[in-house]
Amino acid sequence: MKLLLICLDGVRVDLALPEAVASNRLFAGPDHPSDPRFSVGAPDSTSTTEGARSLGVLAPTLARLVRGDDHSEGTIIPMWMTPPTDSGPGWSSILTGSTHEECNVWWNEFVGHQMARRPDILSRVFFANPAARTLAAATWDAFTVGTGPGPIIQQRIDQQRTGQHQPFHPDVSRGIEAADAAVLQWANWRLSHEGPDAAVVYFEGADDAGHSHGADSAEYRAAITRLDEYTRHLVKAVAERHEQLGEEWLVALTTDHGHKPEGGHGEDEVEVRRSFLIAHHIGGTLPQNLRRVSSLRSNEVMDVLLDAIGVHQGHFDSDGIGEVRDIASVGPTRDPAFEW
Ligand SMILES: [Zn+2]
Fold this sequence. Notes:
GO terms for molecular function: hydrolase activity. By secondary structure, this protein is of the alpha/beta class.
């Protein structure tokens, strides 16, 4: 099965899909405590279901993906982010199946990161089958740009040369909204005409509006609705491939954090830590492992998605793998049997 993973930065699911949040108690509060270093003890600013409903339907495409229909099955799984809830640690964790400690990404600067040891979900697909074709399009340079922070998605230069791995980062000089539109256009053409085996598409518009205007703003809600429509275009592309070619597609969506009413994130407010994983199998029922998951942490997403599409990693275990160890400068005192 092919994978389309759509990453929507900074989307409040209690505003986008209030019914889904209200109907599952596992959306009510975090499933694990936050590190005191990133705790602010702020009150829960989750919107009431009635309050969110009064704002209108913000995300009809997301709702349809969750709901499914006679031919396709969908679900939404509550997910809780581990503070710090900045984008760098959040997306690194989601896309590489790592805790913050494992990838050592704590802030958006990525200083001291271990991403070279924590390959991303697209690379994992490639490692499982080196014939696989992948693409990644992202408004934030930390995803795909080798000279930026990160990158979260490994470069795989050899596969780039042959078009087997295609990364895209738009011109951001005309603003985030235009850059998101460029990501959509680029990804949509390739999804439609090339149908990669796995794709990651990231939009920044909701996060940008949250920072500029806060989660309580009309601008933030409009950004969610715009990205919902972008999502519809991407789903339409792969749905047409299913219809014409019989391809099996798993569409997945997630976010890295919410936003405070006044805007901002990074610590442990409930509405900021709350995330979700939407999964939708176009033209079929959900893979069994997705039915079994009741809630997730960000570092569990990658394995769940890989398992769902049938990707299994090779295994190699031996003493001292990955360790750098020097030998002592003790001169020629070795056993002559080891003299070569
Ligand atoms: Zn973010």
